[in-house]
Amino acid sequence: MELIIVVTLFLVGSQLVSATQEDAPEIDDCGEKSLTSCSGEEIADTLCIKNNILYAIENTSGCYKVEQALALSQVNIMSVTTTSITDASSSLSDDISSDIAKIAIYNCNAESCERSYGFIKDSGNYYSIAKGNKNEGVTPTGGSCDGIIGTLDVSNELCLGYSDPNSITVGFTETGDYLLSGTTAATNPFTTDATAHTIPVLVGTNYMIHDTLLDVEEYCYSSTDASLMSREDNFCNETNCSKYYNCSEGTCEEDTESCTLPPAGTCTATADTNNTCEGGYAIISEALYKCTTSGSACTAETPQIGYYKAVDNGQYSSGYIICKGGASVTCSAASIETADDCNGHLGKIITSGNICVNAIDGDTGIDLTASNKYLMDAGNGITDLGITSKDSSFVVLNVDSTNNKATILTFAETTERYFYVKQDDDKKTIAVKGDTIANAICANKSIMDEYKRQYQDSCVNNSLDETTVAYYKKNRTKNKATIGDYSAIIVLLCGL
After folding, report:
1. In the chain, where the domains are located
2. What pLDDT sits at residue 161?
3. Which residues contact 325 (CB under 8 A, 6 or more apart)?
4. Which residue of 33, 239, 340, 372 is 20 to 30 Å from 427, comparing CA positions?
5. Count of alpha carbons within 13 Å of 105, Cβ hemisphere only?
6. What's the rounded Cα separation, in Å, for the pair 216 and 122?
7. Is the model more confident about 468 or about 235?
8. pTM of the entire structure?
9. Keyword Signal, does the record have it (predicted)?
């Protein structure tokens, strides 16, 4: 006999107004039941699931009277009794309030299904399908999300968190994965407790469920709308990636980088006015100085590994100063490699005045007068620049034509954990959101290569190594993304 519990709730500021709470279907694992079709007048008295199939069985014999397979790679909203098991999704366009006790939700990926809990909606009503198998209709009333995280506000939108981010909500039309964070209201259906949580919620057009199947590393989180998405999808839209989260088994944890930089130094040295120049850099008393305006003193510059355009005072025949890494960064007049292409000349300036970001036969290098970022192969080190070898690693050359320099980015300068390049670009020009390269690789992600910053390679005893160079490696991961209302697995194959 079905048990109906009458509940009266007086929750000031809460979203939940409910008159009845009904027992949801009890569905256990079928275990070792025979699961053969019943042959006689047996009456099903138990519900169970095995291999993504729901069964209504006669418990003593283990035979089934009804069976229904769940659809993989989607959310299944099921109507389940011992006499009938059907997909209830199509019924949500009508009023299902009289059948709410029959509802069970299963979230399925390409291989398996798990029972899920959250909210569903029909033609005009909202329902809590709660962990603990209690189903009920709800009338959202809360005008503010303060104190009701995990429940619906008066606009029928889910409160995702009120401390960080502040009062962000999501409606049923905004499909995708979202991060619910903070201390939840005890009436929330996802966890049914008043405890601090950081959980993924999958939103569809008629459901909001705890996404216990989301299994990803370093998913992008936007503090603007609390959305979660793959890094590739984030790079290819206007949403900025505020943080990264690892999500597994229904919970998410922020993925942080722990290496702490030493405080930046300050420069107080001033060159004598007799050493003034303009339009470049000069070495004065073994130190690097930047000279901007004739008649003004050159100012001391903290050197970085790379090349600087030299002042035209006859002391720098190549027109450049090179600063080399090591125990410290030291600068000297650069030389020009007498060569027409980059074959064997990685990190050097060749006859044309271009710098080689690779050592490929026939490649003519990059123009130092055009601002861009490039990945340079540091797998065997870059001797001329004093860059230490790191297996299968790359460093970032930042060509800054405005400031007349092309320098290797340090860990402190690489705010981006990930960079993206086009697979067939030998120069490995780093794409910028919205530029020509980004548009090309976003239109066809199969030609997108992802490179991840290896901050541990730059850390020794929780501080940066002597060069402070940031290293990147080509990343090969499996990412799960949300497609429409459904969860699917996307395998990103980089360079295969």
Report:
1. 4-254, 273-489
2. 86
3. 305, 385, 386, 387, 388, 408, 466, 467, 469
4. 239
5. 30
6. 31
7. 235
8. 0.65
9. yes
